[in-house]
Amino acid sequence: MTHLQEFGKVEVTVRATIRPCQKEDLPALEWMGLYTRHRNVIRDAFEAQERGDGLMLLAIAAEFPIAQVWVRFGQHGRKSLAYLWAVRTFHPLQRAGIGRQMMQAAERILARHGIERAELEVDCDNQDVLGFYRGLGWHVVDRGDNDCFLLAKNIALHKPARTTGAAKQQRQADARP
Ligand SMILES: CC(C)(COP(=O)(O)OP(=O)(O)OC[C@H]1O[C@@H](n2cnc3c(N)ncnc32)[C@H](O)[C@@H]1OP(=O)(O)O)[C@@H](O)C(=O)NCCC(=O)NCCS
């Protein structure tokens, strides 16, 4: 008799709110020690968001960030280019559709900010994850820096930003709680 037959199983629905990172979220972003060594990176990303140069998009359930997608605006000095990073779903909740919804939410926000193209990098030793991005319309365009794949996607249905200043102000407004 298998464990499933003997003990049964649990199936749950997790409801999470997608929103920008707030200062109070920063300790929890270390994911119980997993990213403690990246505390400075987390803080720098938050400061970039505060300046309107970035976004830390979180899915929050029970006040815990169960998934993340971070954005850096103005990659390579190009206002219409954004860079996505820290794309991750808390391990026990992976393969439940959360990552896909986070990426779709991030894309909607990029479109609203007049971003025409987005890029991200995948480590060469993490090639399995390419299937996740391909399923969302991303394409490998190059070998990026640091022995990784560079992926890109054109962002559809954007409203052109009125001015640089206005786009930046919009990002700062979006990041406010
Ligand atoms: C990659 C990651 C963010 C995906 O998040 P997720 O919440 O598990 O993704 P979803 O459940 O929405 O997956 C959607 C589909 O993408 C594909 N997919 C997801 N993760 C995959 C993986 N690791 N390898 C291959 N395909 C994957 C699957 O087709 C999946 O659908 P299915 O399993 O129902 O067929 C998550 O696996 C993760 O956090 N991984 C560790 C960190 C990481 O490697 N991040 C990427 C850095 S570039």
TrEMBL record:
Residues 16-156 form the N-acetyltransferase domain. It comes from Phyllobacterium phragmitis. This is N-acetyltransferase domain-containing protein. It comes from the Bacteria.
